[in-house]
Amino acid sequence: MNILILGSGGREHTLAWKMAQSPLLKHLFVAPGNAGTEVIAKNVPIGVNDFEKIRELVLQEKIDMVVVGPEDPLVNGVHDFFLNDTELKHVAIIGPEKAAATLEGSKEFAKEFMMRHDIPTAAYRSFNKDTLEEGYDFLDTLNPPYVLKADGLAAGKGVLILSDIQEAKSELNAMLIDSKFGDASATVVIEEFLDGIELSVFVLTDGTNYKILPTAKDYKRIGEGDTGLNTGGMGAISPVPFADAAFMHKIHENVVKPTVNGLRADALPYKGFIFIGLIKVGEEPKVIEYNVRLGDPETEVVIPRIKNDLVELFKAVSSSSLDRIDLEIDERTASTVMLVSGGYPEAYEKGKEMHGLEETTDSLIFHAGTKLENGKVVTNGGRVMAITSFGDNFQEALATSYKNAAKIDFEGINYRKDLGFDLN
Ligand code: AMP
Ligand code: GLY
After folding, report:
1. Which residue lies with its CA nearest to atom 4 of ligand 2?
2. CATH for 20
3. Helix pair 165-176, 132-141: axis angle to 10 deg
4. For 171-205, b where at least 16 C-beta lie within 10 A, e where not — what string?
5. 172-231: per-residue pLDDT in tens?
6. In this structure, which ligand is nearest to the CA of 143?
7. Which of 23, 30, 72, 276 is a plausible cystine mate for 37, CB 3.0–4.6 Å?
């Protein structure tokens, strides 16, 4: 098969690395890709939302399957674009159609879906500019901290958690009236604060059948001890040690089953990954968000633990026969440590040359913001690369990742040295 992956992060390098191991694969393309994917696939300089150029590439290279990494093209309807084109409709797309991608594209839609299907989540109400005063009144009925969420996609920045009621009201005003997050905050979901520890569960579904993939926990804050600004993710661990069999059973019965059945009941076609963000409140899982794709850097620990041929799994998704496959998971723990550019998640410089990559041992190096320049790997983004390692437990896995992180250098390099601090 000829396969195209859309995206350019550590997630896409990991998918490319895994699919490159499949005997079913003939040619692999990544658009636009990074320095890591360039070694194992053909990078094509096309943006993930440039559907016309993607169309040309798919026809020219006789691509049989497109695996969509990020949410943007899904929310923009890339799957529907293929289905509506007579020359493209036979191509397998891994990623949901636009209607189902709204689970990530609109927080209000996701909350309504959860309510309709009895999926445990935080109590909420949503507001727009005409109901601002009601929003203030609703805030007055809640206890701090206050959780305000821009309804639409806001590059991971649209959720505010505030301890002061006046600040919460002025932020609500900024979101609804001053368009703080543009159109994304024309509607704001205000919800109950859930106190507990977070984890993510990944599901691969063909729309009817599904496989629950390994759990993972990521570390979103830039600073040690989970302080400072939010990032795309500074590292991850899989499996999550506190997700024992009893808790996983609850996740399966109370969250995963009603989610997949709900998609079917609502006629929302879904072939792809569902990323369920959860908080463990007491012993109960509660959903804080759905994403319609894999997480990054969660992918860098989840995918390496899957022993199956990923292309075979994707083929089964496409032909609605996932029930015929048994998932095989590596029992070991995987950890990943994200190396980032100095200054990230605020302003940072690009184009810094990397040193020491060839000295690393015993880890998988997944590139994110990198590119090749005159044969040299240079930085090209905030999150630069993820170092994934295995171990009998997360401490062992992390020790190997940190051993290798210390060997790599570029100007301004930064990474969190305390991953797993909350799991001991
Ligand atoms: P989201 O984009 O909905 O995942 O929210 C981003 C982050 O905000 C989550 O990863 C949580 O850390 C936090 N968060 C979201 N909703 C809640 C909530 N209801 N209670 C506590 N924390 C939350
Ligand atoms: N690591 C969080 C995300 O991919 O959304």
Report:
1. 295
2. 3.40.50.20
3. 150
4. bbeebbeeebbeebbebbbbbeebeeebbbbbbbb
5. 999 999 999 999 999 999 999 999 999 999 999 999 999 999 999 999 999 999 999 889
6. 1
7. 30
Closest CA to 305 of 370, 394, 420: 394
Residue of the nearest CA to atom 9 in ligand 1?
A: 288
219, HSE (Cβ side, Cα atoms, 13 Å): 28
- Which ligand is the nearest neighbour of the Cα of 273? 2
Is there a domain that residue 386 lies in?
no
193 CB less than 6 Å from ligand 1?
yes
How far apart (Å, rounded) are the C-alpha atoms in residues 394 and 406?
18
* Amino acid identity, position 118: D
Q: Which atom of ligand 1 is nearest to the CA of 193?
A: 20
- Token digits of residue 182: 């543009």
Percentage of the residues of the chain whose pLDDT score is greater than 90: 97
Closest alpha carbon to 213 in 94, 321, 310, 318 = 310
Smallest CA separation from ligand 2 atom 2, residue: 295
Domain end, chosen from 191, 209, 237, is at 191
Give distance in angstroms: CA of 117 to centre of ligand 2: 24
Same domain, 138 and 186: yes
Q: Are residues 93 and 156 in the same domain?
A: no
Model pLDDT for residues 265-298, shown as the tens digit of each residue? 999 999 999 999 999 999 999 999 999 999 999 9
Question: What is the CATH classification number for the domain harbouring 129?
Answer: 3.30.1490.20
Q: Give the ligand 1 atom nearest the CA of 149.
A: 3
Residue 157 near ligand 1, beta carbon < 6 Å:
no
Specify whether the CB–CB gap between 391 and 397 falls below 8 A: yes
Question: Phi and psi dihedrals of 246, rounded to 5?
Answer: -65, -40
Length of the chain: 424
Ligand number nearest to the C-alpha of 71: 2
pTM: 0.96
pLDDT at residue 230, as a whole number: 87
Side chain identity at 393, as an amino acid letter?
A: N
Query: Are 88 and 150 within one domain?
Result: no
Which residue, judged by its Cα, is nearest atom 3 of ligand 1? 289
Q: Which domain holds residue 38?
A: 2-97
Say yes or no: 146 and 70 in one domain.
Answer: no
Residue bearing tokens 């590596």 = 330
Instruction: Please name the residue whose Cα sits nearest to atom 3 of ligand 2.
Output: 295
Judge whether 312 lies within some domain.
Answer: no
Q: Count of domains in the chain?
A: 2
Residue at a domain's end among 165, 191, 217: 191
Tokens at residue 236, please?
Answer: 């991850």
Q: Is residue 365 part of a domain?
A: no
Domain annotation covers residue 412: no
